[in-house]
């Protein structure tokens, strides 16, 4: 009997300024065996960002060429810039039973789940819209006009939080980081993943496999 893939896919989404990137970095520090998916984007690098580590920064023509060639598993237009996830990289990690983390928006998460329906969705909320606005201003990376557009967009993005299994409110960063690590640890213990990882033990104990179509 062959084992199914035991790797998990974690999708972390949030409106701009909610702290998603910092939380994912804290998760990677706490669980270094996880692999972080590096997205393609047409937006310019922010100060301190490095090509290939934070994003693959490409121009619009290159992005469209890759999209037409079927290189992307999902893509979306966010705040006037395109973002996408490499299909080949994700497929390779899943085939090798590696746990991976993606930072994508709700549109990308919806597309990804059409390919990987067991992906674990986590949505990060700010404690309030006012606090989100203040954080974006403190970040100092955008003009007041751009910040206003991001805050307006955040309201519609937050409306999709109910499409995710887990919601973390990033009021206190340390607590939110612990919550994200707890989600990952618990998801790794899902019955299907444990069966895939320890299929011989499950067979030895004669633990029946449950038909997903019959589960609630």
What do these coordinates show?
This protein has 216 residues and is α/β, with parallel strands linked by helices. It has a domain at 9-37 and 99-207: Rossmann fold, CATH 3.40.50.300. It has helices at residues 20-30, 60-68, 87-95, 106-115, 129-139, 144-158, 173-187, 191-197, 199-204; strands spanning 9-13, 35-36, 39-41, 55-57, 72-78, 81-86, 100-103, 120-125, 166-169. The strands form 2 sheets. Strands 2-7-1-8-9 form a 5-stranded parallel sheet, sandwiched between helices. Strands 4-3-6-5 form a 4-stranded mixed sheet. Strand 5 and strand 6 form a beta hairpin.
Report a brief summary of the structure.
The chain has 216 residues and is of the alpha/beta class. It has helices spanning 20-30, 60-68, 87-95, 106-115, 129-139, 144-158, 173-187, 191-197, 199-204; strands at residues 9-13, 35-36, 39-41, 55-57, 72-78, 81-86, 100-103, 120-125, 166-169.
